Input
Amino acid sequence: QVQLVESGGGLAQSGDSLRLSCAASGFTFSRSDMSWYRQVPGEERELVARINSGGGITTYAKSMKGRSTISRDNVEDTLYLQMTNLKPDDTAVYYCYALVSGRGYWGQGTQVIVSS
Output
């Protein structure tokens, strides 16, 4: 079955960088568009960045544009999100999302906490 396992979250200070990873299994990773979302308690889950199956097309939410880079390794079946110049407003649970044969799948999330 489809499995998405995020890692790399943790505590950071304003201005720090973090790299999140999402290890994928149970589907043909190289054929699936992938995304990162984040969610703050009490708020809706919001898109952070998206990357197409081949890795050549990326889109970013305004909130993280210029401070994040989404990438993927289609050999290692892993999705990445490099975040720089972190701000307290980036505090959230970050989720990996896969679109597989028209159906969406979520990972369990990784918590990022940014202190000022």
Remarks:
- The radius of gyration is 13 Å.
